[in-house]
Amino acid sequence: MKFVEEVVVEEFLPTFRSMLAEALRKRGLTQHEVAETLGISQSAVSKYAHGEVSRRTEILEDERVRELVEEVAEGLASGDMSRVQALVEAEVLIRRLEERDVLARLHEEAMPELSAHDGYVRIHDPESDLRESEAVRSSVRRALRRLTNASGFAGLIPNVGSNLVACLPDATAVDDVAGVPGRIFDVKGRATVPGDPEFGVSEHVASVLLSARGAGADARAAINVRYDPDIVSTLEAAGYDAVEFDPEASGDPIAEAVAAAGPLTETFVCYQTGGYGIEPITYVLGPDADAVATAVGRLLRG
Q1: What is the largest CA-CA distance in the chain?
Q2: CB atoms closer than 10 angstroms to residue 185
Q3: Which is a Pfam family this sequence falls into (predicted)?
Q4: What span, in angstroms and rounded, lies between the C-alpha atoms of 73 and 230?
Q5: Nearest Cα residue to 213 out of 169, 162, 275, 159
Q6: What is the residue-level pLDDT of the chain in tens, covering all 302 positions?
Q7: DSSP state of 167
Q8: Nearest Cα to 103, choosing from 13, 228, 184?
Q9: In 169-274, which residue ranges form alpha helices assigned H by DSSP?
């Protein structure tokens, strides 16, 4: 894991300072004066002067960086610019270069995973989509750990496999829903998760969640487990509403059943008892992945 601030410290600052030290020396400042002006040691200035500091080509050749170096060097050398103003101008440029620019590209180079999010975004923005999507994936991971570590969970997995999904707040499509790539299967009595949660990898359970949301349910997570009358009864006894739907009905049977049921408990159950070539399944839906895992846990405790 590498922070964009590390890119600034390790890539930008050595290059920028060496360029600035060089520009100040050309304007007649001694090594001692350059060191005092930049707030660094004379040995650092000496290293800059002798090319002993690695400089990043992308920064060294950036016209905006070169222009700022000349502007700041001239201002500091003449006394027209204070160190505070020089710092502010440099910070402004850094923020600009972090946003879908050269520092963003260097950050993606160090953290290739960032490129999967439609290009670089300001990851330090508390309102960013990246932060929200990673929080959703994290919630799925935590709930999966709870379930796969729980004794007996594998016995709840249907023949078609299970999936645990969670969605973004304004989810309207499968790509807005994170789940397990492939499905969770029972392998010799052990629940096996094939990969890290991703968005857009669940068609079936994600569609169930989206249908329920489209009918007005305030659910953001769901899981499918096998159907058994006792499973539904246990969940109802625990205080969860249960809604049956016909998997062979035309239209969107889940949405219609949820809409017809009226207000439901925060975490609730949708189930179908099977049909021609259709395995009976129970779906547990809730406000988040943790709430869904808690409901499934009640089944494991009996």
Answers
A1: 88
A2: 17
A3: HTH_3
A4: 78
A5: 169
A6: 788 889 889 999 999 999 999 999 999 999 999 999 998 898 988 888 778 888 899 999 999 999 999 999 999 998 888 888 889 899 999 988 987 788 888 888 888 777 665 545 555 555 567 778 888 989 999 999 999 999 999 999 999 999 999 999 999 999 999 999 999 999 999 999 999 999 999 999 999 999 999 999 999 999 999 999 999 999 999 999 999 999 999 999 999 999 999 899 999 999 999 989 999 999 999 999 999 999 999 998 86
A7: E
A8: 13
A9: 204-214, 229-237, 253-261
Q: Where are the beta strands (DSSP E) in the chain?
A: 164-167, 177-179, 185-187, 190-192, 198-199, 221-226, 241-244, 268-272, 281-286
Report d(CA 7, CA 63) in Å as an integer.
19
**Partners of 177 in the β-ladder:** 167
CA–CA distance, 195 with 141 (Å, rounded to integer)? 10
Cα distances (Å, whole numbers) of residue 253 to 207, 208, 227, 230, 266: 12, 10, 17, 23, 20
What is residue 43's DSSP assignment? H
Q: Where are the domains of the chain?
A: 4-116, 129-301
Which amino acid would we find at residue 140? V
- 180 in Cβ contact with 174 (< 8 Å): no
100, 103, 108, 114: CA torsion to nearest 10? -50
pTM score > 0.90 for this model? no
